[in-house]
Amino acid sequence: MPxxxxxVVDDDPLVCKGLKxxxxxxxxxxxxxxxxxxxxxxxxxxxxxxxxxxxxLPDDNGLDLCKKLKTQRDLPVIFLTARRRExxxxxxxxxxxxDYITKPFSADVVLAHLRAVLRRISxxxxxxxxxxxxxxxxxxxxxxxxxxxxxxxxxxDLAPREFELLHMFLAHPERAFTSEELVEGxxxxxxxxxxxxxxxQVRSLRTKIxxxxxxxxxxxxxxxxxxxxxx
Length: 231
Prior knowledge:
By secondary structure, the protein is of the alpha/beta class. 40% of the residues lie in helices and 21% in strands. It is built from 8 helices and 12 strands. It has helices spanning 13-25, 36-45, 62-73, 86-94, 107-120, 160-171, 179-186, 196-209; strands spanning 5-9, 29-33, 50-54, 77-81, 99-102, 135-137, 140-143, 148-151, 154-155, 176-178, 219-222, 226-229. Strand 8 (148-151) and strand 9 (154-155) form a beta hairpin. Helix 2 (36-45) runs parallel beside helix 3 (62-73) and helix 6 crosses helix 8 (196-209). The longest helix is centred in the middle third of the chain and has 14 residues, at 107-120. The protein is elongated. The two termini are 30 Å apart.
């Protein structure tokens, strides 16, 4: 696993200290800041891979800081907040936040969400060049940068999870995936043990890519194992 560099921003020193300790114990490199100003200074001097931000900061709003980090670095952002108002979550996610955790939280929950966010990005933020080009297998073409997918040249109208699932399949055609591998790869470790989320998306994806969803030729069920994608 690469050593990811994470920026933690919270005006509570105990939160910063606790997250820094637990993330470093899990193998991450961590820098902390207590204000938006110091966070931006750190961002100018370091190539971070993700940021964990408190919404309530003493000198600026965490939502504004998120927008600045997204504009400057296209940095994956997870919000921490003690506010339970639904509006905060909606606004936060609309401006580009990748995830949202309400205080109080456990270190294990933060680690699970961080791993899921880092897994979803197709390239390290520290590298400004897209390293993952279009994937092609049989009649399917998927471009993770433009977030488009086609079959026989015709666009596929896929929901986000369907797109991520097809992405995993096209990246590894003919590979036998266990259900747990697919759930972890698309939804994250916190969803392991909930295979129904996978079953629903496989069924939905089949209706969009198979000529006959009741007799699938591309997404094959492997009894007792999981699934395999056949181009």
